[in-house]
Amino acid sequence: MKLPAFEIHRPKTVADTSLMLADLGSDAAVYCGGTELLLAMKLGLANYPHLVDIKGVLELHGIERRSNSVWIGATTRHHEIECSPEVRSALPELAEMISHVANPRVRSVGTIGGNLCFADPHSDPATFLIAAGAEVACQIRGDQVRVAAADFGSDAYETVLGHEDLLLGVEIPSLPSGSGLSHMRLKLHERPAVTVTAMVQVRNRTVSGARVAIGCVGPVAAACDVADQLLGKSESDFDDAARPCAQEAAAATHPLPGPESAEYRSHMVEVLVYRALRAAFGRAQG
User: Fold this and answer.
1) What stretches in the chain show pLDDT beneath 50?
2) Where would you tag: which of 11, 41, 112, 115 has the fewest CB atoms within 10 A of its CB?
């Protein structure tokens, strides 16, 4: 199949980008890596006569190590995150997760912002960012706002952004001392079918906090409320709490239709939640 004809527009600033999108209206879409948008256009699933190429908007690009976080601009490519010394030092779990996104060709051109904005249900980053407590910086109706990663996706292939809005970047907090983070996935047919990220905090050898996010099963990645059952648990009784947490997480999932049965994917949610919690707890203990 051939790509439909389109015209490329190249703004230099965020303000220019917003003006272009307003002028071009619904005939335009933001474009950077294009790994998913161009494929959708080639397959006839989308048609935009105008693409606004934001690769030249320097304020949207780059990685910055801040005092208690890591900032990643929206147009930063997956490969840059995977190889970044700042990310590998502050959040090696993020670099490890990104290293498994799609394939090397996609990682060399695809961007973190494009991944989040396309909002494909079968994707790794959103699950990880939710469990890590990340925030997404956006320009919405002309104002710069912060949105919790858990609230950014609104449905499959939909986000909180309107047509003229932009994702500016993502800020991921540094892990506090005594914390562990673990991302696990089941990959089938070259795409993740289940993703789970767990974050566990330990103080005085007992669990003081926990978060779990599950993706690729429902229309959006989502947090799973299991922390209360793990609070105060130590090595001797952690498994006794983690296994019921995993079972509850599986029971609460409602898998989208797919080539694998709903029962199989729910079972894999249970398996991966338990394993991720167990791995995060081990890392938190040092």
Assistant:
1) none
2) 11
